[in-house]
Design brief:
Blueprint lengths: L10 H14 L22 E8 L2 E7 L1 H7 L17 H13 L2 E9 L9 E10 L5 E11 L9 E10 L15 H7 L12 H6 L11
Antiparallel strand pairs: 1-2, 1-5, 3-4, 3-6, 4-5
């Protein structure tokens, strides 16, 4: 999803996504409580946190100054669809459900509606799922960058396209290869006995079992 972001001025999206990837490590996603503004300090004005309040609906809990500039007002508490024209709101709602339910990472390409005192603007929005403290996927770390003169606010955007990438947890253990010693392979596979050969049928018969011996002593 990082194609051409830096060249056309959307590097803040790269910073936020890289921070999210570093936080999640080998997990599907990080928790909301792990987000530290200092980790994305240079992109804070474009960053926001969403809370899912109903299917296809999410409101802004935290929002950077860039989002308030686009709307010409404080945007905390507003639904994300406030930034979208009526014709694109259904698509944004469906996209939010993909992010929460699948879960998935999504990047939306947008273009501002034009008019008197409202020059053309290109925008991109990145949506990255987070877990709440309760463990459910009901938060989103987002980044919204619009280029061009804001002009007369509020500015709303048409949806041009969206890229959705399902999340896959990174592998936690390396896969064994034929060149690795048997001891290494069995440890990687989680075996408790690293010395037992792969074909155990013969050796098991030759191993004496423990027997209980009763005596009169």
């Amino acid at each position: 999803m990082t194609d051409h972001r830096t060249d056309i001025g959307f590097s803040a999206l790269n910073q936020v996504e890289s921070y999210w990837e570093a936080l999640r490590g080998t997990r599907m996603m990080p928790k909301r409580s792990e987000i530290d503004p200092r980790g994305i300090e240079s992109a804070l004005e474009y960053t926001f946190i969403l809370e899912r309040i109903a299917p296809g609906m999410a409101r802004l809990r935290i929002a950077g100054s860039h989002l308030s500039d686009l709307m010409g007002m404080e945007v905390r508490g507003m639904p994300l669809t406030s930034f979208i024209t009526p014709t694109g709101r259904r698509q944004i709602s469906d996209t939010l459900e993909e992010v929460f339910q699948r879960p998935a990472v999504c990047e939306v390409r947008m273009s501002a509606e034009s008019g008197s005192g409202k020059p053309h603007m290109d925008a991109r929005m990145l949506l990255l799922p987070l877990k709440s403290d309760l463990g459910d996927v009901s938060r989103v770390l987002g980044c919204f960058v619009a280029h061009g003169d804001v002009g007369r606010s509020p500015r709303r955007f048409d949806v041009v396209g969206a890229k959705i990438r399902p999340i896959v947890a990174p592998a936690t253990l390396p896969q064994p290869t034929l060149e690795e010693p048997l001891e290494v392979m069995t440890k990687v596979q989680g075996s408790a006995d690293t010395s037992m050969p792969m074909d155990r049928s013969k050796d098991i018969k030759e191993v004496p079992y423990l027997r209980l011996i009763k005596t009169d002593d």
